[in-house]
Structures are given as C-alpha cells and as structure tokens.
Specification:
Number of helices: 0
Order of helices and strands: EEEEEEE
Structural class: mainly beta
CATH topology: Jelly Rolls
Helix content: under 10%
Number of strands: 7
Mean pLDDT: 86
Oligomer: single chain
Shape: globular
Organism: Candidatus Gallimonas intestinavium
Protein name: Gylcosyl hydrolase 115 C-terminal domain-containing protein
CATH superfamily: Galactose-binding domain-like
Length: about 130
Amino acid sequence: MMVEEPNLYWEKDGPALHFRGLFTGGKYYVWLLMRFDDPSNDACMVGIDGTMQPRAEQYGRGGFFTYSSQFLWVWTLLSEVEIAAGEHVFSLAAVKSGLRIDRIYLTKGRELPPDDAHFLPSPRHAK
C-alpha cells in the first residue's frame, strides 16, 4: 500500500485496504513491513469491522519515524487489537501519504515476523 502524492493527511476515511478473515479470537499483535522517509509520511491506522483504532492506542502513538530506520524497509510492531472469534474485516488505512507497506503479519504470540526466506503467504479461501 502506498499513496504516492506527497503531503496528504487523513484523520479519518483515508485510503484503505480491507481483508475479510476468520479469527480465533483474542489479542492480536499487528506487524507491518514498512518504509518511511521522514515524519511527514509515517502513520497509518488499523481497524476491525469498520471501527478504526485511535492512533493514541498504537505503539509510538501512531508515529514511527526514527533516523535509524529512515529510508529502510523495517518490520514495525504497530499495535495490539482485540478481535472476537468469527469472521471479521481487518482494515489498514493511510493517515499520511508516502508511507509504504509491503506486508502485514498478525500474531497472537510475541514472536517476531519471519525473515524473507521463511515468510509464507497465508491460505486464501474463496466463498
């Protein structure tokens, strides 16, 4: 996901990706493989079933920029979300343009996302 035009900002209703899936319920940790170049393009939000989590509840309060991660693809722990068991829509929405997101990794444990050699796509099931 990337919105290329610079200096755009959405507090709500920004461009978003939506994924429908079956969840076992509980606390999920949301990891993103992302790249950001400066503080003007380092923010996004997650949501479940159309309800977006406030950025203040994210790790880093919704901003991720550091000079040590500038211009690099890095795995970033975005947030924790509680998801009830069953089918839900997981959403990822842009807050600032320029942020690049390559992968999303949800886990119920404290493990780190796998490296590229061990990253496997999740199963897809069409109805």
